[in-house]
Fold these 2 entries.
Entry 1:
Amino acid sequence: MTDYLAPGLLLAVSVAALRKKTDVYGTLLEGGAEGLKLLVVILPSLVMLLTAVELMRRSGAMDALTRLLAPVSRAVGLPAELLPLTLIRPFSGSAALAVGAEIMAYHGPDSLIGRTAAILLGSSETTFYTISVYFPAAGVRKTRYAIPAAVIADLAGFLSAALCARLL
Amino acid sequence: MTMSLVWVAMLALSLVFGLLTGRGAALGGAAMEGAGKAITLGISLAGSLCLWSGFAALLKKSGLQRVLTRLLSPLLGRLYPTARRDAETMDALCGNVTANLLGLGSAATPLGVAAVRRMKLLSGGDEASDEMCLLIVMNTASIQLLPTTVASVRAGLGAAAPFDILPAVWLSSLLSVSTGILAAKGLGRLWR
């Protein structure tokens, strides 16, 4: 079913935009240029983190960290290989993307760990960054329970990503 | 700042472990190799990233956002009984949720901030109201229908069907957003 998703969506949205008398092709090109700018923004982060992760893997530090975290991950049902990703996810979107991409590359994008990493990335957000943008921008000083509630939602998201990867 | 500490910790751990395990000699090559891999990965996902960003721009102009907003506003009105009474807050709020659903992050943030500003104006005070906390939680728990960036990474790495993670992403998002809403509603009662 998902095979037809990409071309189907492209067609449906293009037709909808055409009916609005939009310059469909021109808009695609403009948006595409934005996408390449986004790539330029995430590339340095990709380089730095992949360098650091490669060093951690070759030195044996990654294995040690995974082994250290194994009891925690067994308790919560999340593969230990993904715990570093969950630690970085709430703080930086591009760093999480880089670490997640490395995990997918190392374990294979269609392996259980690779798929769980993708599902986790797709179903979570850069929580602390979001909070740090919203409240100051609106001039709200006392955040009350916003942070604990957001963290609870994140934890639920990580666990459900592991669960859904196994189920679906 | 957080990332600077993460970076230093990763390098320090690698060096210490390299020395302890005697694999230090491999580290010089590893650093260069990691950097090279990053560029290879970046190039392999550039195509899909470019394509889906074009799609996002088209989505913005297709009018689909407005249709989705109209569909969602009754549901959101129930979650935000105070905001519902003010048309301007409701517009920004629905726009924010819709933009998030469609994966238009750059459009979602200004709308969300506008909604929180308007809520603050109406409530006075510098304290986050229950509905502001709820809005924050709905923005920090992802509710994206099409995670195109992750799918691009999967495509770049040669996944058989880059989008086949969708059902799992939807279920997982639904679970985390519902937990977030419940947590916000529950904590709202306790936190006085």
Entry 2:
Amino acid sequence: MAKKLQLTLKVWRQPSGKAEGRIETYDAKDIPVTASFLEMLDIVNEGIIADGGEPIAFDHDCREGICGMCSLTINGCPHGPGKGVTTCQVHMRSFQDGDTIWIEPFRADAFPVLKDLMVDRTAFDHIIQAGGFISARTGSAVDANATPIPKPVADAAFDAAACIGCGACVAACKNASAMLFVAAKVEHLGMLPQGKAEKDRRVLSMVRAMDDHGFGNCTNQYECEAVCPKEISATYITKMNRDFAAASVKEAVVTEF
Amino acid sequence: MKLLESFKQFYASSIGKKLLVALSGAVLLLFLLGHLLGNLVIYLGRGALNDYAEFLHHALHGMGVWIARVGLLGAVGIHIMATIHLAAQNRAARHSRYAYESTQTASKASRTMIISGTIILCFIIFHLLHFTILPNDLKDVTTAGHVRPDVYGMVVKGFQNVLVSLFYIVSMAFVCFHLSHGVSSVFQTLGFRSEKSADMIKWLGHGYAAFIFLGNISIPIAVLLGFLKF
């Protein structure tokens, strides 16, 4: 028999986007340390349903850290304790018997709460729609290595492409800025030959889309990098700042994009 | 005008404003270094400091000091205006605060830049009134019989007041605090930071802040301890 934990949960409950939200207290009894965090919430929800209550709504899908659907700010930290993990990869062995755990949604005006712990991250889709793609038809797959890409460049582009768009960077940022997400998306394409052709136009339109959605501004505190489940480096933000400056000058004095 | 439209669009963007804060910050950082090195001339004695002051006031037929003043005022103005806009947007980006606040890596300095910046602004106003706008009219007569303002005497007299010295030292502590986040931020925002150079830039920022702090406070301390005499 696995060890069992007796926990107190402080959970953000909000019936709908328009309703007022507040913190409610729940007892999470006999939670096995082997359970994942989301399984713990499933157990608590079963209890709430048995008592005739409304279960706690939260986002989740793959439960293996790759889909970017789960969220939750656990004790003030998006995706909870542990480096490089999503909430679904957090296990109850990270907590002690008797702990009180605060569970809140990813908070940002650009991510409005839909219900309880679920937030609407459509703003990210709009940013991608503004330029996070290659517009040329690339046809069927070409021979591998037909376009030589130096290994370090391919690696750096892949590290940025690892972004799953979960929004933890926004949730952790003191200013609710989306710079790490946007930088990862701008740079993973901008570094590769296929994406370079539209690099300037892309960085300008994606940053403008980010601004239009009311995200805050980066203050170089690197909270985003600390919580990113894919451990994407804030140096992609550095690169994006540089690319944005160059593209702005080009647009102002040389050409239209 | 097309260029003006482009600039408006640039300023409207978050990164545009950040770049202006970083560029104006860089100007002020370089000024601080020049100002400190100039201040340290005081240790070479009354003649040297007064020579240096006379040189500054006569550079480019007296225009040099005005070019510097206008440039610095512009940099301070841009730095303040853009940060106020950025901070207002940051506030507006999260209306519902976390009930459980936690911080992973952000330093105290980085979270209080607006406060330290405001204190520094107050200090700058006092400092300008103290030594530039309302200086005392001490005169220094050179051996050649040339009469000129006695900057050395003004500084030593000024710092012999313990309260004034204390105010300068505390203000420099806030400058140091501000720079401990500001210097490395300039590199990040202007796009000159990499995985490999990140640590070096961080320590460069802390070292620069400490150098400006220690260099500047050494002067009131030297006056109070009697090393620099009127």
